[in-house]
From TrEMBL:
Cellular compartments annotated: Cell membrane
Taxonomic classification: Bacteria, Bacillati, Bacillota, Clostridia, Eubacteriales
Species annotation: Thermaerobacter composti
Stored InterPro entries: Beta-lactam/transpept-like, Glyco_trans_51, Glycosyltr_51/Transpeptidase, Lysozyme-like_dom_sf, PBP_transglycosylase, PCN-bd_Tpept
Listed name of the protein: Penicillin-binding protein 1A
Biased composition (Gly residues): 704-716
Length: 823
């Protein structure tokens, strides 16, 4: 029972305070009553500039057009009263019940969350341009002016003044302008539904008109409220609620990047309300991060949408599928280009910012950042085969599959290849090893702000929905070699006299180690590499680039997110109704690479045209070394000896048998029937123990019949299944590069920093032996790439000297470090 009594007490205090204020201010009220209304300033257009000082938009609206009282339809008066101040005709300027309720809510929240302002109070604020700042002083003056208005004018006069003053969004001050702006008709001809729509917009003037679903929900709420208050009958409310909400497209005039300008307006409303309130008349100069050349490139690339996808009809009058593109400067987070849909005039919803959609495989880079940050080598093989995990739908085991048929590679894939071909099964297995909780935490640190599941392995496949902007931001952390930035649009605001009202300070925070970000980027380069069957092998842009495709269930969302050191861009295509599949023009299901990827490619080529190609500088803590991995089909797995990049201190043991000690690898081999569970395959005869002596060899099956490792690797010998493309050969430049078109390759021609040094031999030196997962509480960011710490010097550490050839001598099979790990 504490709440009502508290509410009553608060209401009484508020009432007493108001009366006191009114008495104290009686003289001021008398003075104010004889002074004229303040003269409005001469309206002046606000100019928005791009990063090179070119004008992006000139924002200007005609002066208010005042409506005569008889022009205002009763439905609009009633709707506004219902929406903003239901007891307007009964109170004397202050709705004490509303004030008490607001005070109670604010007390409970510990801050101002609700205003409780009556229509008269709101009018006082707008008439006299009182800032929305909620200080006592402002409140005091507002209260005086409210009393004055109530003394001098009738309720109908106050409401008329209010409707002539209030802001409805899109530059429309006053109901007469708003009726033209939104419905293209004179005020007296507004229907009930249209009146309710305008009333709905007052609470969020720059919010609702862009988001048709939310706008309709609020309009329908206003109509219900009107029925509750007896202004209209329930049947009238229902009829009006059944009407579609159709707004006239905004006439943006001289706006060259409408979605971006809209984003700027949106940001201003949140961060500089005093500028937003006078945006169309205040003559501000707003300097932004946009690059008009890149914006032009973005609009041209998005205009190719109908060449890459089939039309899907309309959803609420808007053609589908829709599209979004957002590009950031990774170094600062400045937004360089932004397209939020096919056409701002017909669909102002900015999907780059507001469309929260499943990213599919475009989420995988966060998973693999966690994997590589744990010290796991890129060469660790995982079999793509039928795998089951607890927690599937309906109590069934969860059984991940690859995109398309047959659903499994039935082959060993190391991390580089698993990322390049976007393997789902391998990704889920890695997620099971590093755990969703840790990956979600890392993704958040990298810049994802939407809620992420911490429970389900499907996080690996992009189950948790995100927006294009936050995805671009989180990829920028990789492009930036580990520094997270915040996307932003406004660099500086000046008033009409050139005084700086706002200036943005650069900020960036290190969230992952540069070595880890570099490795992930290097792996993501292979997505463009035909040698790795990369899903984006046709999407090169002629310079070093990294990226990832995304395609969700049944192609409902298709993505491409990719970056160079200078630019990161995310492209999304999907249907606003979440239901329809994105199709290729021929009718087949679309993939990220065949659709969003082509728009990304067209954009990046044009946006970066003329800029020098750059590659990422390799951090010192990354070393090149030879390592053994498993490749080939499950029927005939092969050792492969190749060069790869590693975190210093995490170079794997220089022999292939060490690989067979990994319990996960043993499990995979056992599942493939290559060796009985719990036993190790026979060691290769005369197994050499150093790099270069063991090129490739078939894993022995049931004895030495398959031949020795040194000779069995001859690929021409027919041991390789035809569908299995051989991986790069040792020593070859097998790093992914910027593309298939002879663009500049990475500078690995320089000598490897570790030639001749004996690589660390201890298997255990590279990671915790059982799973590759760092110990609980370990730093998932890899900020300390060597959990051991003391011997981070890498190759030649004395641990390696203590544990030579942990693969054991021939004839002495190594024993797994941990038995029974795999369920
Ligand atoms: Zn697979």
């Amino acid at each position: 029972m504490g709440r009502p009594s508290l509410a009553r007490r608060v209401a009484r205090w508020a009432a007493l305070a108001v009366i006191a204020l009114a008495l104290m201010g009686a003289g001021v009220v008398a003075f104010a009553a004889v002074t004229p209304l303040p003269k409005p300033e001469v309206p002046q257009a606000t100019l928005i500039y791009d990063v090179d000082g070119r004008v992006v938009a000139s924002l200007y609206r005609q002066n208010r057009q005042l409506a005569r009282p008889d022009e205002i339809p009763a439905s609009l008066r009633q709707a506004v009263v219902a929406a903003e101040d239901a007891r307007f005709y009964r109170h004397h300027g202050f709705d004490l019940v509303a004030i008490g309720r607001a005070a109670l809510r604010n007390l409970q929240a510990g801050r101002i969350v609700e205003g409780g302002s009556s229509i008269t109070q709101q009018l006082a604020r707008t008439l006299y341009d009182l800032s929305l700042e909620r200080t006592f002083d402002r409140k005091f003056r507002e209260a005086l002016l409210t009393v004055k208005l109530e003394m001098r004018y009738s309720k109908d006069e106050i409401l008329t003044m209010y409707l002539n003053q209030v802001y409805f969004g899109r530059g429309a001050y006053g109901a007469k302008v708003a009726a033209q702006e939104y419905f293209g008709k004179p005020l007296p001809r507004l229907t009930l539904a249209e009146s309710a729509t305008l009333a709905a917009f007052i609470r969020g003037p720059e919010l609702y008109w862009r988001q048709p679903d939310r706008a309709k929900a609020r309009r329908d709420w206003v109509l219900s409220r009107m029925a509750e208050l007896g202004m209209i009958s329930p049947a009238e409310a229902r009829r009006a609620q059944a009407e579609p909400l159709v707004l006239r497209p905004p006439d943006e005039g001289e706006v060259r990047a409408p979605y971006f300008v809209d984003y700027v307006r949106d940001r201003l409303a949140a961060t500089a309300p005093e500028v937003a309130a006078r945006l169309y008349t205040g003559g501000f100069r707003i300097y932004t991060t946009l690059d008009l050349d890149m914006q032009t490139a973005a609009e041209a690339a998005v205009a190719r949408l109908d060449q890459v996808v089939a039309p899907l009809g309309e959803h609420q009058g808007v053609p589908q599928p829709q599209v979004a593109l957002v590009a950031l400067d990774p170094a600062s987070g400045g937004i360089r280009a932004m397209v939020g849909g096919r056409d701002f005039a017909t669909t102002p919803l900015n999907r780059a910012v507001h469309a929260r959609r499943q990213p599919g495989s475009a989420f995988k880079p966060f998973l693999y950042t966690a994997v590589l940050a744990s010290g796991e080598p890129i060469t660790t093989p995982v079999a793509c085969r039928v795998r089951q995990y607890p927690g599937g739908a309906g109590g069934e085991p969860y059984t991940p599959r690859d995109y398309g048929d047959p659903g499994y590679h039935d082959a060993f894939l190391d991390i580089r290849r698993a990322v390049a071909v976007s393997d789902n099964v391998v990704a889920v297995e890695w997620m099971d090893r590093v755990k969703p909780r840790r990956v979600a935490a890392l993704a958040r640190r990298m810049g994802i702000t939407s809620p992420l599941t911490t429970q389900h392995l499907t996080l690996a496949l992009g189950e948790s929905a995100v927006t294009p902007l936050e995805l671009a931001r989180a990829y920028a952390t990789l492009a930036n070699l580990g520094l997270r930035v915040e996307p932003f649009a406004i660099l500086r605001i000046e008033d009409r006299d050139g005084h700086v009202l706002f200036r943005r300070e650069p900020r960036a925070e290190r969230v992952i180690a540069p070595e880890v970000a570099w490795l992930v980027t290097d792996v993501l380069k292979s997505v463009f590499d035909p040698a790795y069957d990369g899903t984006a092998r046709a999407l090169g842009i002629g310079r070093p680039a990294a990226g990832k495709t995304g395609t969700t269930d049944a192609s409902r969302d298709v993505w491409f997110v990719g970056y160079t050191p200078d630019l990161v861009a995310a492209v999304w295509i999907g249907s606003d109704d979440f239901a329809q599949r994105v199709l290729l023009p021929g009718g087949a299901g679309a993939t990220g690479s065949s659709t969003a990827g082509r728009i990304w490619q067209a954009f990046m080529r044009a946006a970066l045209d003329g800029l020098p190609a750059r590659d990422w500088p390799r951090p010192e803590g990354v070393v090149r070394a030879s390592a053994c991995t498993l490749t080939g089909s499950l029927d005939a797995p092969r050792f492969q000896w190749r060069e790869e990049w590693f975190l210093a201190g995490h170079v794997p043991a220089p022999n292939c048998l060490a690989l067979l000690q990994d319990p996960h690898v043993r499990e995979d081999l056992a599942a493939a029937g290559q060796a009985p569970r719990g036993l190790v395959p026979l060691p290769l005869p005369s197994l050499p123990d150093g790099p270069g002596l063991l090129p490739e060899g078939n894993l022995p099956r049931g004895g030495p019949a398959q031949g020795g490792g040194a000779t069995g690797g001859d690929r021409a010998g027919g041991a390789v299944p035809p569908e299995e493309r051989p991986g790069p050969e040792p020593g070859r430049d097998d790093r992914g590069t910027g593309g298939e078109e002879g663009g500049p390759r990475a500078t690995e021609a320089e000598p490897d920093p570790t030639p001749g040094q004996p690589p660390a031999a201890g298997h255990g030196a590279r990671r915790p032996p059982d799973s590759g997962v760092p110990p609980e509480g370990g730093d998932p960011t890899g900020a300390h790439p060597d959990p051991g710490g003391q011997d981070g010097a890498g190759p030649g550490s004395d641990r390696g000297a203590e544990a030579p050839a942990d693969g054991g001598r021939p004839g002495e099979p190594p024993v797994p470090d941990r038995g029974g790990h795999v369920p």
